[in-house]
Design a protein that fits this description.
The complex is a heterodimer.
Chain A: H1 2-10, H2 12-42, E1 45-46, E2 53-54, H3 60-105, H4 108-119, H5 126-137, H6 142-149, H7 164-188, H8 192-200, H9 205-234, H10 237-242, H11 249-258, H12 263-286, H13 289-292
Antiparallel strand pairs in A: 1-2
Helix pairs in contact in A: 1-2, 2-12, 3-7, 3-9, 3-12, 7-9, 8-9, 9-12, 11-12
Chain B: H1 2-20, E1 44-49, H2 56-66, E2 69-74, H3 78-86, E3 95-98, H4 100-108, E4 112-113, E5 137-138, E6 141-142, E7 144-151, E8 153-157, E9 181-184, H5 191-197, H6 208-221, E10 225-229, H7 232-240, E11 246-249, H8 251-259, E12 264-267, E13 274-283, H9 289-299, H10 302-312, E14 315-316, H11 321-325, H12 327-332, H13 338-343, E15 345-346, H14 356-367
Helix pairs in contact in B: 3-4, 6-14, 7-8
Classes of the chains: A mainly alpha, B alpha/beta.
């Protein structure tokens, strides 16, 4: 035992290796190798009938991705990015006031309660939470009943469920905690003295928000947006349950693997998602947001 | 860094080898010998099935009798079933209840083992056309045991639609029920309009031109569809909430919805119907073959077939079932009606002139 510790003391490299080794190995085997296989698969072909992979190189999958079927796959990609952007924007708009209230206004007791209210839904299955929206938005759902009782509608509207609106609403709800929590952490750290100083120097509420609060909250905003954007780009559960049938990227990938058994093209679609997310991360890195946290 | 890359490439190559190995065991021409089905089972059974094919109403009794604990995963489409069955090298599931559009693929890809019909106690009581049908028998080898069959029917809410529809037209452009229609989210659905509106008597062998025409018709249908259903439960939810009043489905849903108190009816429209004929198939790498044979024997027995028919509304393959259900129900289920059996266009995997990849692509274009 003593010898081991002496060895480790004398060899900082060994120390580091021992500490990092398992994590690096894990990353390597379960992330990098898996991703590499995904890349390989996207460059292979497949027997249509038996769905066996044929290990012959081809770029057909990418050809199809960027131009096939009248641009279908790029349209699906575009819709998904747009939806992800909308959902991220909704979550920012909802989460900012809430996080501000929790971090700076609410009494400690309220803060705990609000915190629980944000986090507790995460303990239940995401399926249950999505199904709940099906009950709320459906033809005989809560929303329609209330609107009819209020006299706003005279018969149930089908505009709420089984379309893109429903997908956006559901996503905005299920990912909200991932926006609130990083924002809360960022806002909580702003010292009161900064706000006082800003006011002392004659800045109004809007100027203080724009020039003091927003820059300091920016890392939290970026972290939250990254979570929400990435989760949205990959999800297929909400679109399948509350969507009408128009495809999103996550669903298209799932269908390529699970329904069409077209692994090479599914892998190519997955690579597109991956590249998009890496680009997104790169942009946020460029803005120095992550270092500031 | 360089070392890292080397390691990475080696690992990936090893992974690829594993992925590409394992298709070498071409079956030799020995006659098939199944396990001792009267022996003790392995204690469990994993299956991927159509909804209703492992219903508690008859599975519980099987578990008690056989000591095999049943784990049944439902699939929404043939493709999903095929993919699930083959995932993880094909050893994850012992049995699948493939329809004709997946069963041949399963045989060709070598994923399933031939069955020993001498161990299948109900084999000789199956309807003659279901003992060695092309979709589960090849070169005299039985890779599947026929189980249930039926038609894809038009289901409607009889409270909302007073006059029974007689044509599939109610699902397409010009329908008075626009926005309240549901159809399966399944590329094989292309066969329906091909048969019903483009005169294709073999709707699974259609030309590119017909495929384009059908896709055009389905695109016009797209805005009328409230939701493309994936699982039977989706379909039922849509009818229960009133979000859909008419749709293409299976007798299972008519059955379930009636039990749930929704006044639905089903019809076979005049343009003809597609359908399916399902077979139990055993994985080549089944870990629980004894339990699998026990289950196949159990669910094809007349008593259980009657119960499966009660759950699903599908027609049993075993003709002796008539003795259990009585003459009226026997006639309703068309159990011995060869003529009726022959009118249905059973699901097959399209190979040519257009293949299934082209169908799935066309379907993706329709959904948008």
């Amino acid at each position: 035992m003593k010898r081991v510790s002496r060895f480790l003391y004398a060899h900082p490299g060994g120390r580091l290796g021992l500490l990092l080794g398992p994590a690096v190995l894990w990353l390597l085997v379960f992330y990098l190798v898996a991703l590499f296989l995904l890349l390989l698969t996207s460059l292979w072909q497949q027997d249509v009938f038996t769905s066996e992979l044929v290990h012959k190189w081809t770029l057909d999958n990418y050809d199809k991705l960027f131009g096939g079927q009248g641009g279908l796959w790029l349209r699906i990609f575009g819709r998904t990015v747009l939806l992800a952007a909308i959902v991220t924007a909704i979550d920012v708009a909802l989460a900012f006031p809430l996080a501000w209230f929790m971090a700076r206004v609410a009494a400690p007791r309220w803060r705990t309660l609000l915190f629980l209210a944000v986090v507790v839904p995460l303990w239940s299955s995401i399926l249950v939470r999505i199904f709940a929206w099906r009950t709320i938005l459906g033809g005989s759902g809560v929303l329609n009943s209330v609107l009819i009782d209020l006299g706003i509608l005279d018969k149930p509207s089908s505009a709420f469920l089984y379309n893109d609106n429903a997908i956006a609403i559901t996503w905005a709800y299920v990912w909200l905690p991932f926006m609130v929590l990083p924002l809360y952490t960022a806002l909580e750290k702003i010292p009161n003295s900064y706000l006082e100083a800003s006011r002392d120097l004659g800045a109004g509420g809007w100027t203080t928000f724009r020039r003091v609060v927003l820059p300091l909250a920016f890392p939290g905003l970026v972290a939250g947006s990254t979570f929400v954007f990435a989760l949205t780009m990959g999800d297929f559960v909400a679109p399948q349950l509350v969507g009408g049938g128009s495809q999103v990227l996550g669903g298209a990938i799932k269908d390529r693997f699970g329904v069409a058994a077209d692994y090479p093209f599914g892998a190519a679609l997955a690579m597109l998602t991956l590249v998009t997310l890496v680009a997104f991360l790169f942009l946020t890195r460029r803005s120095n947001a992550l270092e500031a946290t | 860094m360089k070392q890292l890359m080397t390691l990475l490439v080696t690992c990936a190559a090893a992974g690829a080898l594993v992925a590409c190995g394992g298709s070498d065991s071409n079956s030799s021409d020995k006659s098939v010998t199944g396990p001792n089905v009267n022996g003790k089972g392995e204690g469990k059974l994993n299956m991927v099935v159509w909804e209703g094919y492992a219903d508690p109403s008859y599975v519980k009794q099987f578990e008690q009798q056989s000591g095999c604990k049943v784990n049944a995963v439902p699939a929404g489409t043939s493709d999903e079933m095929f993919t699930k069955f083959r995932s993880g090298g094909g050893g994850q599931y012992d049995l699948a209840s493939f329809s004709g559009d997946a069963s041949v693929r399963a045989i060709k890809s070598g994923a399933v083992a031939p069955l020993d019909t001498s161990k299948l106690t109900n084999f000789s009581n199956l309807a003659p056309q279901l003992q060695s049908p092309g979709f589960n028998t090849e070169n005299g080898k039985h890779y599947g045991l026929s189980f249930m069959w039926g038609a894809n029917v038009l289901i409607y809410n009889a409270d909302k639609i007073k006059q029974a529809p007689t044509s599939w037209n109610v699902l397409y452009a010009g329908s008075p029920y626009a926005g309240k229609i549901t159809v399966p989210d399944n590329p094989i659905q292309i066969a329906d309009p091909a048969l019903q509106f483009y005169g294709q008597q073999n709707p699974y062998a259609i030309s590119q031109q017909t495929l384009d025409q059908v896709a055009g018709k389905l695109k016009q249908q797209r805005p009328l569809v409230r939701k493309y259903w994936v699982l039977a439960s989706d379909f039922e939810q849509l009818f229960k909430s009133g979000d859909a009043v008419v749709g293409a489905g299976w007798p299972l849903m008519t059955n379930d919805l009636k039990k749930a108190g929704v006044n639905v009816k089903e019809v076979l429209p005049k343009e003809g119907v597609t359908g399916w004929s399902d077979s139990w198939m055993l994985s080549k790498n089944a870990k629980n073959p004894v339990c699998a044979y026990k289950y196949m024997n159990y669910v094809t027995s007349p008593q259980t077939q009657a119960k499966v028919a009660d759950v699903t509304g599908y027609s049993p393959a075993n003709r002796k079932t008539c003795a259990v259900v009585g003459a009226q129900r026997c006639a309703d289920l068309h159990i011995t009606d060869n003529k009726y059996y022959a009118t249905i266009k059973y699901w097959q995997t399209p190979v040519r002139p257009t293949n299934y990849r082209q169908w799935t692509d066309a379907w993706a274009t329709v959904k948008g």
